[in-house]
Amino acid sequence: MNLSTILARGRNAFRMTPRQLSARLRDELRQAARRPWSGVYPHVLRDATVIGESAARSHDDLWERQMMAPFFLNPSDRDRYAAAFRARYPDAVAGVIAGADAAVRHEFDLLGSGAKAFGSRLPWLDDFKTGRHYPLQYCRDITYMELDKATDVKVPWELSRCQHFTALGQAHWLTGDDRYAREYRAEIEDWIAVNPFAYSVNWACAMDVALRAISWIWGFYFMAGSQACADPGFRRALLRSLFMHGEFVFTHPETSDVNGNHYLSDGAGLVFLGLFFKHTARGRHWLARGRRIVCDEMFEQVSEDGVDFEQSTAYHRLVLELFFTSYLLLEQHGEPVPERQWTRLGRMLDFVAAYTKPSGLAPLIGDADDGRVQKLGTQAINDHRYLLSTGAVRFSRGDLKTAAHHFWDESFWLLGPDHAASFDRLQGDPATFRSVAFPAGGFYVLRSPSAHVVVDCGEVGMRGRGGHGHNDILSFELFLNGLNVVSDCGAYLYTASREWRNRFRSTAFHNVAQVDGEELNRFVGEDALWQLRDDAHPVGARWDAGPDGDYFRGGHDGYARLSPSVMPSREILLARRAPRVVVRDRIEGAGRRTIIWRFHFDPSVKAELADGDCRLTNRAADVWMLPIGDACGSWRLDKGWVSPSYGVRHDTSVLVIEYDGSLPISPAWLFAEARLPRADRQEALDRLDARAACFEQEARRLGGAFSRKKQLFPKEQSILNKRLESQKTFS
Q1: CA–CA distance, 354 with 479 (Å, rounded to integer)
Q2: The domain containing residue 559 runs over which residues?
Q3: How far apart, in whole angstroms, are the C-alpha atoms of residue 333 and residue 528?
């Protein structure tokens, strides 16, 4: 352990509460006690322990019996799967085979590396993006977070997750070609030789150990009956290594006072490994703990309305996969999951259906590292609809079928060809396309046939720690008139660059108002890459769905710490029958302030300023961003970046509106399908005022007014009294 690591751990310890520090010290003591055990365990692990109490007399017998054990795939049914897949997805077959062929050639594109071709052996211990080689040491002694160097330990971790094994297996089933099975065997043999138990960087994170084991098990059920995997020596090596993976995850749980997706991944890995080795005493221990984790954490990590508490759409997808895959496998083995867990999981699917844009893609809210449990399909990385087709079958829900669009190939391999027919028999239901709120999770989705808005009005994430959440309260993504218009920026990198890591989670990289250059939630320190101070909390978030449009209103107290305090809030009105959305911010306070708004446009659109308006266009359509009401601030277009996946960054345009003056102010903007005349712009603002006034009066009647004021804004009261809301329809 070098000096920088010692200093970093010291800084982290200084930031911990006494309870956190006590838990960390206990963990360090446990890990120190395990060090000698790690060195001898592979040598004392008896074959009889792996074979367990089954009727098998050898590893060969155990192998054959495991092929018959319940799983998502049945090796004896290979030909039927292949024929059904070719019939249903004829256009996908070539892509599956091409991906598998690239893996056989050792060509990979991981985490933004671009296509890389390796030689006969894969660089299991290398960050091949930078050339960093990690030493063969006890996993706890390896310094892998080197923030002063442009290195990224996620690169060897991602390669060692072996999630390309499913592509090899699918190609093997579709073609009958044994070279895909030979590659599976060769890579496992090489990985075991290069990564001694607990003595490489690929043992440093139990989550990655768990996900690797899941990949190996998927590969087993694809390849177990192949000639390439008939060798008794290979069978023994694979079964023993999988057993050691189970023991490692069981003895190295990633626990904390607030557990997240790492701990849940450990639990999912223990479910897979525990069921695989259920014939052994250790396997049953792993299964019991894994089952407890994946059942209990549903109510620790997911809000009552179905949102993962890490405030990230990408991690919501990962966490949903972890729960869903584990629950399905448990039920395959006659281990039923309580209905309460399934009900909460159904709400997680509701959130996916709501946040999915008309383009089929998810918004880029919060962190993203492209993490998956298993990769079974050919969909784009930010297309989460395969979860909906799986959910449609499991819950017999027509609304999820409609939202999924079709039965995705990912669902085919997870559920089997028979359930493709079940999906086809479901009656579609367009109810999922209504606006919906997830107040406990902190998200609000407004939608119409031509518009889709996702608003983040939740806590910072992970119960105020930050975690994978960003400084994005009141930020939004907008899809309008066929265009991805306003986008979140994504995450880009983690430890490979503290500068870029902190920039992408900063206030300036989100579609919000920033006051005096201050962060919404202050950074704990430049090296605390997964922590933010718990400064900004939602204030009075409400929404309402009406016949002519849907309305959101919310605020936050992130700048209440300033003197005098500043209280931002945001209103959004979405028209139901025309592609128009009004956004208004109220910045309440006193004195002179510098307020900067940034609107990050999707890289697919071209932005240009035109006499005080902003035109956004691509080859298909136009959208105009028009100032309405109180004009304040100067407009300019700056360069920005959007990261659609880890390690990838695209240039884009950012509209920057800067105001230096006295508070309060309340600028508003209209996003519309055309450059509307002044009268239409004013009508849109009047409609917003009327809706806000009605909304505020209703809130006061219910005893929960949004604002801390006792009275309505005078203009709103006047409009309410005139009942303008019934005169014209903003549509």
Answers
A1: 13
A2: 434-726
A3: 42
The answer to whether position 469 is within a domain reads: yes
User: Residue 16's pLDDT band (boundaries 50, 70, 90)?
Assistant: low
Q: 565 in a domain, yes or no? A: yes
Residues 616, 601 contacting (CB under 8 angstroms): yes
3-state secondary structure labels for all residues of 350-374: HHHHHHCCCCCCCCCCCCCCCCCCC
Measured in degrees and rounded to the nearest 5, phi and psi for residue 62 equal -60, -40
Find, among 612, 604, 607, the residue nearest to 657 by Cα.
612
Cα separation, 283 vs 281, whole angstroms: 5
The CA distance from 107 to 122, in Å, is: 10
| CB-based contact 500:492 (threshold 8 Å) | yes
Number of domains in the chain: 1
Q: Is 395 exposed, middle or buried (0-12, 13-18, 19+ CB in 10 A)?
A: middle
- Residue 722, pLDDT score: 42
- Give me the residues paired with residue 436 across strands: 445
| Residue showing tokens 């003591």 | 29
Beta-carbon contacts of residue 103 (< 8 Å; ≥ 6 apart): 164, 167, 168, 183
User: Residue 470 sits in a domain of what CATH number?
Assistant: 2.70.98.70
What is the token pair recorded at 554? 């919310």
The phi-psi region of residue 65 (left if phi > 0; otherwise alpha if psi is between -120 and 50; otherwise beta) is alpha
pLDDT of amino acid 8: 53
Rounded to two decimals, the pTM is: 0.93
Express each pLDDT in 77-98 by its tens digit: 999 999 999 999 999 999 999 9
* Rounded CA separation 310/639 (Å): 29
Are the beta carbons of 596 and 511 closer than 8 angstroms? no
How many CB atoms sit inside 10 A of residue 70's CB? 11
Backbone angles phi, psi at 561, to 5 degrees: -75, -15
Considering 11-15, 501-505, 629-633, 693-697, the range whose residues carry the highest mean pLDDT is: 501-505
Question: Which helix (H) or strand (E) segment is 335 a member of?
Answer: none
Half-sphere exposure in the Cβ direction for 462 (13 Å, CA): 22
Distance set, CA 407 to CA 73, 89, 173, 428 (Å): 17, 10, 20, 12
Q: Is residue 355 one of the residues assigned to a domain? A: no
**pLDDT, tens only, 163-182:** 999 999 999 999 999 999 99
At 497-542, the pLDDT tens digits run 999 999 999 999 999 999 999 999 999 999 999 999 999 999 999 9
pLDDT for the residue numbered 499: 96
> What is the per-residue pLDDT for 38?
86
Rounded average pLDDT over 648-675: 97
Say whether 244 sits in a helix, a strand or coil: helix
pLDDT at 430: 74
Using CA atoms, how far apart are residues 48 and 240, in angstroms rounded to an integer? 11
3-state helix, strand and coil shares in percent for the chain, rounded to the nearest 5: 45, 20, 40
- Is 58 inside any structural domain? no
Does residue 1 carry a pLDDT above 80? Answer: no
Residue 119 dihedral angles phi and psi, to the nearest 5°: -80, -150
